[in-house]
Amino acid sequence: MRVTIVGTGYVGLVSGACFADFGHHVTCVDTDAAKIAVLQRNEIPLYEPGLDRMVETSVREGRLDFTTDLKKPVADADAVFIAVGTPSRRGDGHADLSYVYAAAREIAMALAGFTVVITKSTVPVGTSDEVERIICEMRPDADFTVVSNPEFLREGAAIQDFKHPDRIVIGTDNARARIVMDELYRPLYLNRAPMLYTGRRSAELIKYAANAFLATKITFINEIADLCEKLGADVQEVARGVGLDNRIGAKFLHPGPGFGGSCLPKDILALVKTGQDQAAPLRIVETVLAVNDARKRAMARKVAAAVGNLRGKTIAVLGLTFKPNTDDMREAPSIPLITALQDFGARVRAYDPVGTEQARGLLADVTFCDGPYACANGADAVVIVTEWEQFRALDLDRLKATMASPVVIDLRNIYPAREITKRGFGYHGVGHPLDKG
Ligand SMILES: NC(=O)c1ccc[n+]([C@@H]2O[C@H](COP(=O)([O-])OP(=O)(O)OC[C@H]3O[C@@H](n4cnc5c(N)ncnc54)[C@H](O)[C@@H]3O)[C@@H](O)[C@H]2O)c1
Fold it and tell me: Which pTM does this prediction carry?
């Protein structure tokens, strides 16, 4: 089967590499010529574990290639995915669909033979209808159908998620499209990944509703963590006790500095806007957004509560990306946290295993360091913001020796409080009884 992916970012590149790995012939297209040049040199323009080897193998075996020109690959394709970005629109927070519609127009002009056009980008309900209208208007002769197939992969575990999804959601009522989609995903179906066929609008909404539910779970446990601190309870014990209930589940019950990343904040904002436009406001989700926004700067107040007046103090921030195993800095909680620390007068040193280059462009007046111990050098406190594996087993004696005062603010609760306090550190986790005010 011939597949063309328009938009070679996280989702486009991972999907393209995985479809090629299944044996399909895949062309990934992007308007960013520099990105395509990097891929054509056999380099990967983003950090995702395992992706380099998978791309290298499929390119070598002739199943995967990259181009800036979509005409031929779209004309030859059985399936064309739209996987371009859908960021927040400046000014009003709705999803910016200009990239999706531009891609639809370019695809329209190149279509030849029956083609399934698939919106994989996260798009508001009705966008696939509009993609269909655009293509019909530009190419009334074209033989095509538009399918919604939202993506649920997580950065940092993207290949595993793509190859072992909880479900594959496919929004279409077109029988010919169904044959193509079944063939595309057949290897996963053989792995018993459930294929959920729905209406196109339902498929579009499933993606937003799922993200909103996950964000609600995170925000819920964050507020319970705050309450634990007031009451002297331990949020990790509470989360375990709650999560063992099968109706609730243990995942996404880890408190932290608030959710960020390339998806949750913008998708939830877009869903809130859709609800308001439809006079069906999503009040719970609106509150989740507001609570989460406030939380990021509140984490700086937590640092101040642990260290005292921050003016002139040096704070070492470990972890900058919004989660481990990615270099993605989009909407990372570290950004508002660091800005707030600087507003309080602190000097900030920072270290991230792979995100430093991305972070440089987003953060001013930060001293970027080569490792966790260099970062902690002379610091009045270390703040763990992202739970990279390498921060889980730091040499605590070495860390202590290099710091001006041994205080750890662990915003991911990766250290057992008793162990670290025994080593002479002041320790402040999230939702921890030691933080009882
Ligand atoms: N990143 C994730 O973890 C994730 C997970 C699930 C869903 N999504 C959704 O998938 C979509 C893509 O996200 P992403 O993180 O991969 O975005 P990204 O910003 O990493 O990549 C988008 C790519 O599309 C390219 N592009 C834009 N217009 C184009 C056009 N007309 N033709 C060809 N290429 C074009 C850009 O140059 C860019 O390389 C978004 O809607 C996002 O919400 C992302």
Answer: 0.95
For residue 176, the one-letter residue type is: R
Nearest protein Cα to ligand 1, atom 35? 7
End-to-end CA distance of the chain: 62
**Pocket of ligand 1 contains residue 168 by CB under 6 Å:** no
The 3-state DSSP class for residue 382 equals strand
- C-alpha to C-alpha distance for 97 and 101, rounded to whole angstroms: 6
- Report whether residue 111 contacts ligand 1, using a CB cutoff of 6 Å: no
The CB of 9 under 6 Å from ligand 1? The reply is: yes
DSSP assignment letter at 343? H
Task: Give the torsion sign (CA, 271, 272, 277, 278).
Answer: positive
3-class DSSP assignment, residue 107 = helix
Closest to 18 measured CA to CA, from 177, 171, 193, 178: 193
Which of 6, 10, 68, 86 is the best mutation target for the ligand 1 pocket, counting ligand atoms within 8 Å of the beta carbon and taking the most?
10
Pick from 130, 131, 152, 125: nearest CA to 273: 125
Active site residue 28: no
Whether 306 lines ligand 1, by a CB cut-off of 6 Å, is: no
SS3 308: coil
User: How far, in Å, CA of 66 to CA of 123, rounded?
Assistant: 25
pLDDT band for position 91 (cuts 50, 70, 90): confident
Note the pLDDT tens digit of each residue in 6-36: 999 999 999 999 999 999 999 999 999 999 9
Helices (H), 51-168: 51-60, 71-76, 98-110, 127-138, 158-163
Where does 232-325 have alpha helices with state H? 235-243, 264-277, 283-307
